[in-house]
Amino acid sequence: MRRVRRPGLAACGLGLLIGLAVAARPTPAPSAAAQDRAADPLPSWNDGAAKKALLEFVKVTTDTGGPRFVPPEKRVATFDQDGTLWVSHPMYTQVVFCLDRVPAVVKEKPELKDREPFKTALNGDLAAVAKLPMKDLEEILVATMTGMSVEQFQAEVREWLATARHPRYRRPYTELVYQPMLEVLKYFRANGYKTYIVTGGGQDFVRVYAERVYGIPPEQVVGTAGGTKYGFDKDGRPTLTKEPRLLLNDNFAGKPEGIHLMIGRRPHAAFGNSTGDREMLEYTTVKNPGARLGMLVLHDAAEREYAYGPARGLPDTQVGTFSVALDEEAKERGWTVISMKSDWKRIFPWEP
């Protein structure tokens, strides 16, 4: 029989002493900042009506003994993206992506070089592009986002996001997310809510980075969606090709329509920032039983981010318009308007 060699007393004693020493070692006290974060789930928010509304809503909807308790399976919160979760000025990120792809499209189709709106886009004059009518912008979007497989499109988006930089901040677009809203997403999920992006932006575009940036998986992204066609690639692999065919315009009334189509539950909370989100907030809050929360981000921090309305005397804009009528409806409906200037201690995760 093979004799099993056991460690000597010296080795056992040394191990015991090491174990005792590690066990006896005092655990470092958490920093003051860490303690504050643990006590406050929304540390980037100033105390005020907006923060109070968020905390109160989550409290009453998760109180099992309370009259406004929401069962976990019904806890749905929807978030617009552009201007609500990340920067949308001076131009929507996806539009910038499409403009950057115009040279590649023109290379494949040289006949577009001297044709509008591609001629204006090739000049690189964003001010001129911003003045193009919507039908011209839509033509650019269709030309730059269709005619390729879904996988090829995803690869194009990932490559662009890795190199593109915002003209003001000189940072990747995926770093221009709002820290206070990231905290709201995390806070809601920690309390049993499913968080969905409901955006007028392209569904396929946002799904590329939503999980990495927001913690929201692609199946919880509802956006403007185009048609696809099933077929096989040159290697015989089944594939979907993006077609110039609109299935869902997920903006204005299209948002509640998309919510019904893709989610199948009426949200208990909805977050937006512009007239394009009005119907989503109405669908969520108006004459619905139980606790409901509607919130709108107002961009009124010109030095730290941007300022635009035209509500409350802010400059007018075609990108993320917050109209006077929307502001008045917010007061009538009891929606909370979040002031970037007053309600947020910091805007971006990289700020000190």
Attribute tags:
disordered N terminus, alpha/beta, single chain, 41% helix, 7-stranded mixed β-sheet, 352 residues
Written overview of the protein:
The structure is a single chain. By secondary structure, this protein is of the alpha/beta class. The protein folds into two domains: 44-91 and 176-343, Rossmann fold (3-Layer(aba) Sandwich), CATH 3.40.50; 93-156, no CATH class. It contains 15 helices and seven strands. It has helices spanning 9-24, 32-39, 49-61, 93-108, 118-123, 126-130, 134-145, 150-163, 179-190, 203-207, 210-214, 254-262, 278-285, 324-333, 340-343, and strands at residues 76-79, 194-202, 221-232, 238-248, 269-272, 293-298, 336-339. The chain has a seven-stranded mixed β-sheet with strand order 4-3-2-1-5-6-7, sandwiched between helices. Helix 14 (324-333) links the parallel strand 6 (293-298) and strand 7.
